[in-house]
């Protein structure tokens, strides 16, 4: 019988949302997108890195980002979310897994992000130790509907695949 603790593949999904706030920096996948508003949060509110981090933690069945980095802890105030993602990837490595690929979607009504796709994708790939060909970054509006569509929030979704190292 297959040893369930040593699954050859593990899939994980993550989702995150942050409120839009005037005057905050808009940081997506570690890239600063020039805009008159940004995302509110205890850390740098990088909704993409948070969703990918949760996807990695979910693949490992190790809970969620708030368990590992409580948003009440002073050390994570304005923290660079890259460290959350790299911590999760480190936990995967400790269990013998490496990331195989990431797919992700940022849902934001405006501004248009397509001019930043290359930079966000390259930065996420570098953060995850993956070639860019293994990293998908998609953008969607919310068709002016709901909190995202009304410009009150931004969401991100991610799926990751972990592979057991031979
Ligand atoms: O949401 P919708 O399907 O209308 O988005 C159309 C295209 O606009 C997307 O495929 C994406 O390339 C781009 N987009 C963007 N920045 C956003 C939302 C969408 O560049 N904030
Ligand atoms: Mg978050």
Write up what this structure looks like.
With 166 residues, the protein is of the alpha+beta class. It has a single domain, classed as 2-Layer Sandwich (60s Ribosomal Protein L30, Chain: A). The protein is 28% helix and 31% strand. The protein has 5 helices and 7 strands, in the order ββββαααβαβαβ. The strands form 2 sheets. It has a 5-stranded mixed beta sheet with strand order 4-1-7-5-6. Strands 2-3 form a two-stranded antiparallel sheet. The model has no long low-confidence stretch (mean pLDDT 95).
Describe the secondary-structure layout:
Layout lengths: L8 E14 L3 E3 L2 E3 L3 E3 L7 H13 L5 H4 L13 H13 L2 E11 L9 H12 L6 E6 L5 H4 L3 E12 L2
Parallel strand pairs: 5-6
Antiparallel strand pairs: 1-4, 1-7, 2-3, 5-7
Summarize it.
With 166 residues, this protein is of the alpha+beta class. Helices cover 28% and strands 31% of the residues. The strands form 2 sheets. A 5-stranded mixed sheet has the order 4-1-7-5-6. The protein has a two-stranded antiparallel sheet with strand order 2-3.
**Elements, N to C (H/E):** EEEEHHHEHEHE
Terminal residue distance: 18 Å
Q: How many separate domains make up the residues?
A: 1
Q: What Rg is obtained from the alpha carbons, in whole angstroms? A: 16 Å
**Unreliable stretches:** none
Bound ions, cofactors and other small molecules, one mention each: cytidine-5'-monophosphate, magnesium ion
What's the architecture, going by CATH? 2-Layer Sandwich
DSSP strand (E) fraction? 25-35%
Average pLDDT score? 95
Task: Classify the helix fraction into a percent range.
Answer: 25-40%
CATH class: Alpha Beta
Counting DSSP E segments of at least 2 residues, the number of strands comes to 7
The computed structural class is alpha+beta
What's the name of the CATH homologous superfamily? 2-C-methyl-D-erythritol 2,4-cyclodiphosphate synthase
Alpha plus pi helix count: 5
């Amino acid at each position: 019988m297959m040893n369930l603790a040593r699954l050859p593949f593990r899939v994980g999904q993550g989702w995150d949302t942050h409120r839009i706030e005037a005057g905050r920096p808009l940081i997506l996948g570690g890239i600063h997108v020039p805009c008159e508003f940004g995302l509110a949060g205890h850390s740098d509110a990088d909704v993409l890195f948070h969703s990918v981090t949760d996807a990695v933690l979910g693949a490992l069945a190790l809970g969620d980002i708030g368990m590992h980095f409580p948003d009440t802890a002073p050390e994570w105030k304005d923290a660079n979310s890259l460290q959350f993602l790299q911590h999760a990837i480190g936990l995967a490595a400790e269990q013998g897994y490496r990331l195989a690929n990431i797919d992700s979607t940022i849902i934001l009504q405006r501004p248009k992000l397509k001019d930043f796709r290359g930079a966000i994708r390259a930065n996420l790939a570098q953060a995850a130790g993956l070639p860019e060909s293994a990293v998908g970054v998609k953008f969607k509006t919310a068709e002016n509907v709901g909190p995202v569509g009304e410009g009150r929030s931004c969401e991100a979704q991610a799926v990751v695949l972990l592979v057991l190292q031979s």
